[in-house]
Amino acid sequence: MLHKRLAATSAAICLGLAFVVAAKAETDTVIVAGTAPAQDPCLIVAGAKEAQWAQTPLMIHETKVYADDTTKVSETIFTINQAYAHYIGKPWNTAQFLTRQRSVRSAEVAAKAMRLTNCRLVGTVKTGEAAHLYAFDYLADEDGTRSTGRMTIADATGLPLEQDIDVNAAHPDSRLPVRIAATFAYGDAVKVPLDAQLAEYVRRSSAQHWLRNIQNGHAGM
User: Fold this and answer.
1) How far apart are CA 111 and CA 36, in angstroms?
2) With contact defined as beta carbons under 8 Å apart, do 75 and 88 qualify?
3) In what order do the strands lie in the sheet with 179-186?
4) Rounded CA gap, 3 and 21, in Å?
């Protein structure tokens, strides 16, 4: 299922999908990029994630590296009301997923949900635009996992350009990645591939067919 795949992917890299849904406010707030207090690096990092989830469209290109050096590369695209995801070389899966379902109440909520600690500014980085690199730690998990992360944030927009996480587990699980790296694209830089559009058409057609069967008393068909 797409939702399970997206939740697992985002939780691993703290991209925020899992906690975005859980922390959604009853009344969505207007998100303005780059408004986190400059004196608090954790709020700058969390504020960048808060702003990111309000972007439409948004694309996440993610690479997972495992202990045996194998890799898995995935792409996830969010539009106003749809989500598309696949591993490179595999078919696309789709689901309805509204922008407001991704919204976060505040940078403070995001920082707490991401379990950020020891955030610090590393310095400027060379990208296609002016940006700064931040480093941070995650609070230890119950199994002893201690992870560190880095995020490159654009000066002009306050949005993340790149993010990665290194996992240092006391008892590593071979099924879990030891490093995850992601790059992000927004707006006109994001195009939904034809294969993804076709997958969404098939999903909608199947759902309509199932609904017609229900309405006609053929739920088991």
Assistant:
1) 11
2) yes
3) 93-96, 82-87, 71-78, 58-65, 179-186, 160-168, 146-154, 131-138, 116-125
4) 11
Angstrom distance (rounded) from CA 76 to CA 93:
10
State the Rg of the chain over Cα. Answer: 19
Neighbours of 3 (CB within 10 A): 14
List 94's β-bridge partners, or say none: 84
Residue with tokens 């017609």: 212
Helix ranges (DSSP H) in 55-190:
107-114
Dump the DSSP string for 8-48: HHHHHHT-SHHHHHHT--SSPPPP-TT-S-TT-HHHHHHHH
- What pLDDT, in 10s, does the model give residues 63-105? 999 988 899 999 999 999 999 999 999 999 999 888 888 888 8
